[in-house]
Amino acid sequence: MEAGLMQVGRRGFLGLAGAGAAGAAVALGAQAGLGQRRTGAPAAGMYAFEGPHQAGIVTPAQDRMYFASFDVTTRSRERLVALLQDWTRAARELTAGREVGGGTLPYADPPADTGEAIGLPASGLTLTFGVGPSLFTGADGTDRFGLGGRRPAALETLPHFPKDHLDPSRSDGDLCVQACADDPQVAFHAIRNLTRLAFGTAALRWSQLGFGRTSSTSSSQETPRNLFGFKDGTANLKAEESGELDRHLWVAAGDDPRADWLAGGTYLVARRISMRIETWDRTSLREQEGIFGRDRAQGAPLSGGREFDRPDFTATSRDGAPLIATGSHVRLAHPSQNDGHRMLRRGYNYTDGDTSLGRMDAGLFFVAFVRDPARQYIPLQNTLARQDALTEYLQHTGSGLFACPPGVGPDGWIGEGLFA
Amino acid sequence: MEAGLMQVGRRGFLGLAGAGAAGAAVALGAQAGLGQRRTGAPAAGMYAFEGPHQAGIVTPAQDRMYFASFDVTTRSRERLVALLQDWTRAARELTAGREVGGGTLPYADPPADTGEAIGLPASGLTLTFGVGPSLFTGADGTDRFGLGGRRPAALETLPHFPKDHLDPSRSDGDLCVQACADDPQVAFHAIRNLTRLAFGTAALRWSQLGFGRTSSTSSSQETPRNLFGFKDGTANLKAEESGELDRHLWVAAGDDPRADWLAGGTYLVARRISMRIETWDRTSLREQEGIFGRDRAQGAPLSGGREFDRPDFTATSRDGAPLIATGSHVRLAHPSQNDGHRMLRRGYNYTDGDTSLGRMDAGLFFVAFVRDPARQYIPLQNTLARQDALTEYLQHTGSGLFACPPGVGPDGWIGEGLFA
Ligand code: HEM
Ligand code: HEM
Question: Domain named Dyp-type peroxidase N-terminal: which ranges (chains A, B) (predicted)?
Answer without folding.
Answer: 54-211
